[in-house]
Design brief:
CATH architecture: Roll
Structural class: alpha+beta
Radius of gyration: 14 Å
Strand order of the largest sheet: 1-2-3-4-5
CATH class: Alpha Beta
Strand content: 25-35%
Order of helices and strands: HHHHEEEEEH
Number of strands: 5
Number of domains: 1
CATH topology: Nuclear Transport Factor 2, Chain: A
Largest sheet: 5 strands, antiparallel
Number of helices: 5
């Protein structure tokens, strides 16, 4: 059974700020959308606006093969199957056309984090290229789980 407790302000932040995939101006906005709109994380419609093209394609293909289910056996936004989230925050670091946003939170009271890597696409929009964590029961990297090379990103 999956338990999710996320403050209402977090879930509605995108709506309150009027953020949509087409107008996410900063890396932290893009990552915030993935938490606020879980379907985007699975490659749903609009995912190409927030995910690097190769990552969106791989997620969509893997989800289609899995009958629409997640291509990984946990919610990669948090790194776990079962979640009870508190103390959620996003910490951005931007360096020219690359960015990292670290999501820090507690899951069932235990400190955890997920690292999001982003690139600036030719159209100027920020897109997620990877998500990874080494704070859970075992380290994971989304690109590796999907069979994508870490050194060949198609932003």
């Amino acid at each position: 059974m999956k338990f999710v407790r996320i403050p209402a302000i977090l879930l509605s932040l995108g709506a309150l700020l009027g953020c949509s995939a087409a107008v996410a101006a900063e890396p932290v906005d893009v990552v915030q959308q993935l938490y606020a709109e879980p379907g985007l994380a699975l490659g749903a419609e609009g995912a190409q606006q927030v995910l690097a093209s190769d990552l969106a394609r791989a997620l969509h293909t893997a989800a289609a093969r899995a009958g629409g289910a997640s291509p990984v056996d946990f919610d990669y936004r948090y790194g776990f199957k079962d979640v009870e989230i508190s103390g959620f925050a996003l910490l951005p670091q931007v360096d020219n056309d690359r960015a990292k946003v670290v999501a820090v939170f507690k899951n069932f009271g235990k400190p955890e984090s997920v690292d999001w890597s982003l690139c600036r696409a030719p159209d100027g929009a920020w897109r997620v290229t990877d998500a990874s964590s080494n704070t859970g029961p075992e380290a994971w990297d989304l690109r590796q789980l999907l069979g994508l090379r870490l050194d060949q990103v198609s932003c």
